[in-house]
Design brief:
The protein is of the alpha+beta class and 872 residues long. The chain has 25 helices and 33 strands. The N and C termini lie far apart (79 Å).
């Protein structure tokens, strides 16, 4: 039986023997394509070639690509672990032809590899071809059908619909008919009962697609029409984990040697046996799968966060933690302990795992610690809710609040509700979730028109911005892009001095100057290897020679900050330790942000020493020494430092300032003296073992200094008679703390006194205890007072009014018995609030309102009492 490592190597070696260039896997985290967060298919790294944006570096290619599918079109997350073949992170084996061979060779190669090299029995394989689509007037792919007949029996060749057998890159772009290869892994007895042909694309877990051959020959335009591509291309993708399942004779991807080492380690750590308990088995599969996704993302430079791709990774990790917590009884961090097993398994193929192992462990452990605390806090909030709501469904609004505000999983809320013989109002939860998604989708929706070509078939836009900031140019193509709030134009030039946002450096702005008009370029981005200039208007005459002019002052300020990050990196390695590595950066014209590896917070002395070293290098006015197209090995011998999560080609650009040497594609100041001055204004933690420094340079340093001076002058004015400013401030703080403590103690005593007096003499309304007060306490204290009554009395109504900081507040708390009789605190408070010229609302048992008319308090309280009397 072949191991997974042998299976992967066999694929690569086979296509290398057919003249394909072996290409390394691209990063799983996409950095220069705004349409993608993650690489979700093997073809992603070849998009520029398919789109004709670059000159083809080779005609044939093959690779094993790490991919992630958890969001957008390919959303498999909730299925992962519950079936045998869905994953978040997976490997895609592929072969590509760029205008070279087409259907005949692609089909022949696939069949040879599967049946002759891997030795899969032909009787277990089924192939599909595109059967046409009348709605789009697309004919059947008879060409592929005839080629398949050369190799495959006709009863194993199936016609497929547009959903399964017509592949598209997106709403627009390259597309074409495709052929899928499916394998039947069922027992001979099962095959005898039902033919595998009847189960293809029917979601049978043992009759599955393993390879998709895409015959890319069309281009989808924005209006939905199809036009032929200039060249016919081949794009194939084979699921590595599914192939391993087939070749290793397993019934589940998780039973192969791709996953079993991880699963067995999880079983050992949880004192479980895989295969004996379905819920535990699902949890182990979830943890094993999700660890791979998270570890590879971190290795590729992405840290968990609350935004964009970082949030996706955090969500995946939290799902794994939750399954371990709920079904495997892990109450302390456990996933980080599995990293060594993963690295031993996959580190040979993916070197970044081994290199980033320590960081991966630290980040995962910190995330686990934080989320386990979240789970604990969520359970406390849930128990409090149950205490206050003795009966009925768990409010969908409350479940959504736990989910959205506190990150508490709704299925865990459902599980805990079930243990209390309760259920969650899921329709209400789903409605909240739907509204949230619609808000996000509407805010983010971008509609792009088709590119209008001014210079047809133009490739390889030349960047001139290292040497000049002004350049005669022509427009190659343009398109209009619309969002919910704006309409912009994207313009591609034949050459440009404008730097496109990349590597943490923001894009340039400036002007495109024509004969009779100047167009403002507001930003520059890079998309699919195109440098895109963003404007709010299009030149009236696009067929002319323009002058592209960068905003020089802004560019120089950006360069000051960029160069300062290099000096900062060098200084940190000297002051803190040589283990310091850059983990990310952001530089614009105002300030710089630099993330780096460090196990602990920098001391005040370390910050000061770092500043001194950077400023010393600035005063030395070190010149910028640039090396372009330097062989990567030569650059490494020079001591050049590579950036975290970045992939480099055979030739690189090297930037040196004195002893500081780095690989860098960004723009820099001509010499360090032009930076002026450097000042660290912030130091904080962003993840486990990752610190962040924020700093300013040049003119912004002056502004920062003036702000400090102004603040110091203001502070001094408060202590004009004091000869010792620092001790005076210290004394004032101590006195304030003492007074605050006295006020808090007085407020607590006041609250207790009010409660004691009220509960001794309740007003009776038909056996209901009615409590009413007007008390000068803040809103939180009034809420606390209301809940005291709820905890002690079963039949009651509390109505309170208070004035705090000039605002009038009303509060109502009702017992469950009153709510059951039809009382609604939210509705009552809205009526009462009219008397204080305000408004409010809340839940049926508890509501508040605010207003501004103090004179209406008595009428408002009377209104509440009258409403209660009406109900009773």
């Amino acid at each position: 039986m072949m191991t997974s490592k042998e299976i992967r190597k066999t694929f690569i070696d086979f296509f290398a023997s057919k003249g394909h260039t072996v290409v390394p896997s691209a990063s799983m985290v996409v950095k220069d394509d705004p349409t993608l967060l993650f690489t979700n298919a093997g073809m992603n790294q070849f998009k520029d070639i398919f789109l004709g944006n670059v000159t083809k570096p080779y005609k044939r290619a093959t690779d094993a690509q790490k991919c992630l599918r958890v969001s957008g079109k390919h959303n498999d997350l909730e299925e992962v672990g519950h079936d045998t073949y869905h994953h978040t992170m997976f490997e895609m084996l592929g072969n590509w032809s760029f205008g070279d061979y087409f259907k005949k060779e692609a089909i022949a190669y696939a069949w040879e590899l599967l049946t002759k090299v891997y030795g899969i029995e032909e009787k277990n394989l089924y192939v599909t071809y595109f059967g046409g689509d009348d709605k789009e007037n697309l004919p059947p792919d008879t060409e592929a059908l005839e080629y398949w007949k050369t190799w495959v029996k006709e009863d194993h060749i199936l016609s497929g619909n547009k959903h399964d057998n017509f592949w598209e890159m997106g709403e627009t772009g390259p597309c074409g008919a495709c052929s899928e290869i499916h394998i039947d892994l069922r027992s001979e007895e099962e095959k005898a009962k039902v033919s595998g042909a009847m189960l293809v694309n029917k979601d049978n877990p043992l009759v599955i697609e393993i390879w998709n051959l895409v015959f890319m020959e069309n281009n989808r335009l924005a209006d939905g029409s199809l036009v032929p591509l200039k060249e016919k291309n081949i794009d194939t993708g084979m699921g590595f984990e599914r192939l391993c399942m087939a070749l290793q004779g397993k019934k589940s991807n998780y039973d192969t040697d791709v996953f079993q080492p991880l699963i067995q380690q999880i079983a050992k750590n949880s004192n479980s046996i895989y295969g004996q308990d379905e819920k535990k088995d699902i949890a182990m599969r979830v943890v094993a799968d999700h660890l791979r996704a998270v570890a590879f993302a971190i290795a590729d430079g992405l840290l968990p966060s609350n935004a964009k791709a970082g949030y996706v990774i955090r969500r995946i990790l939290r799902r794994a933690i939750r399954y371990g917590y709920t079904f495997l009884s892990f109450s302390s961090p456990f996933i980080y302990e599995l990293v060594d097993t993963l690295v031993a398994q996959m580190g040979e193929q993916y070197k970044e795992l081994e290199k980033g192992k320590d960081l991966i462990k630290k980040v995962i452990r910190e995330e686990e610690t934080a989320f386990l605390k979240t789970l604990s806090n969520g359970i406390v909030k849930f128990e409090k809710y149950i205490e206050e709501h003795k009966e009925g469904k768990i409010s969908g609004d409350f479940a959504f609040e736990l989910f959205d505000t506190y990150g508490f999983p709704v299925d865990l809320t459902e599980l805990m509700a079930k243990e209390k013989n309760r259920e969650v109002d899921m329709p209400a939860f789903e409605e909240n979730l739907k509204k949230q998604k619609e808000r996000s989708r509407n805010a983010a929706k971008v509609v792009s028109e088709d590119w209008v070509e001014v210079i047809p078939d133009f490739t390889d836009v030349e960047f001139k911005g290292y040497d000049v900031l002004e350049q005669e140019v022509r427009i190659v193509k343009y398109r209009q892009v619309k969002t919910k709030t704006d309409s912009l134009y994207q313009i591609v030039l034949d050459k440009t001095p404008f730097y496109a946002e990349m590597g943490g450096q923001v894009g340039d702005s400036g002007w495109l100057k024509g004969k009779e008009e100047n167009i403002t370029i507001i930003d520059t981005k890079k998309e699919n290897n195109l440098i895109i200039h963003i404007t709010k208007q299009l030149p009236k005459e696009v067929n002319q020679v323009f002058v592209a002019q960068v905003d020089v002052k802004r560019r120089e300020n950006i360069e000051r900050n960029h160069t300062a990050t290099h000096l900062l990196h060098f200084a940190l390695r000297k002051v803190v330790g040589s283990y310091v590595e850059q983990k990310g950066s952001y530089v614009d014209e105002k300030r710089l942000r630099f993330d780096f590896s460090s196990p602990m917070k920098l001391s005040t002395e370390q910050i000061r020493q770092t500043e001194k070293m950077v400023n010393q290098m600035i005063r030395e006015d070190l010149p910028a020494n640039e090396g372009r197209n330097v062989p990567i090995q030569e650059a490494k011998k020079m001591g050049a430092m590579a950036l975290f999560g970045e992939k480099y080609g055979d030739k690189v650009r090297v930037i040196r300032f004195g002893e500081s040497v780095e690989l860098c594609g960004g723009t820099h100041i001509k010499s360090t003296g032009r930076i002026g001055m450097f000042k660290i204004v912030g130091e904080s933690a962003v993840a486990a073992g990752i610190r962040r420094i924020e700093a300013v340079t040049g003119e912004e340093f002056e502004n920062y200094l003036y702000l400090l001076q102004d603040n110091l002058i203001k502070i001094k004015s408060f202590f004009e008679s004091s000869p010792d400013l620092i001790n005076s401030i210290k004394k004032t703080i101590e006195e304030n703390h003492s007074l605050k403590k006295q006020v808090e103690d007085f407020a607590k005593q006041t609250l207790s006194d009010v409660y004691s007096k009220l509960k001794e003499k309740p007003e009776k309304i038909n056996n209901i205890n009615y409590f009413e007060t007007v008390c000068p306490i803040d809103a939180d204290a009034m809420k606390d007072l209301a809940y005291r009554f709820r905890r002690e009395f079963k039949e009651f109504c509390f109505a309170g009014a208070n004035e705090h900081n000039g605002k009038i507040m009303l509060t109502i708390m009702l017992s469950d018995s009153l709510v059951e009789k039809g009382a609604d605190a939210g509705a009552i408070i809205r009526e009462a609030a009219k008397h204080i010229k305000g408004g409010g609302g809340g839940q049926k048992f508890y509501a508040t309102a605010g207003g501004k008319d103090k004179e209406g308090i008595a009428q408002a309280l009377q209104c509440i009492k009258n409403k209660i009397k009406e109900i009773l």
